[in-house]
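Same chain as my last thread, 166 residues:
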Amino acid sequence: MAKKVLVVNYEKCSGCRMCEVVCSWRHQQEFNPAKSAIQIVTLRDKSVDIPIICQQCDKAMCQQVCQPKAISYNSEYFAYIVDEQKCIGCKMCISACPVGAMNFDPDKGVAIKCDLCKGVPQCVRYCPMGALEYIDADKISIKKKYVVAEKFFTEILSAKSLHQVG
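reply #2:
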């Protein structure tokens, strides 16, 4: 299997929080967004919702700072996994995460992080807006180029129509 990554199209996110609910149900068997590995951050002053997701870093700081070695890499799913039996709840991994994508379950006293649902991310499956995608890692660069090109094209059209009106 080729390496795949979770990608967010922030412009499509409606802030419905379905991803959080699905994630918490899949992993914690309860509908509790506070126990989800994906978190939606709402910037109210900008009227935008931003899904914060684990980037499955090549040099994962969460794994590097974990003293009990509770975080390991699963090469089959290309994801870092928290072993709840080994986790001591110190939260060092949460502090070390450069994107703030890790969470903590106060009931179990363990860290929560995305494990990509063993290669079938449920957040992607149930996102009604299609804001989340699980794509081949080697296609990210191409996809980003198209997104930038689309934005550029839209801005050029907007600029041209403003000049025609004025």
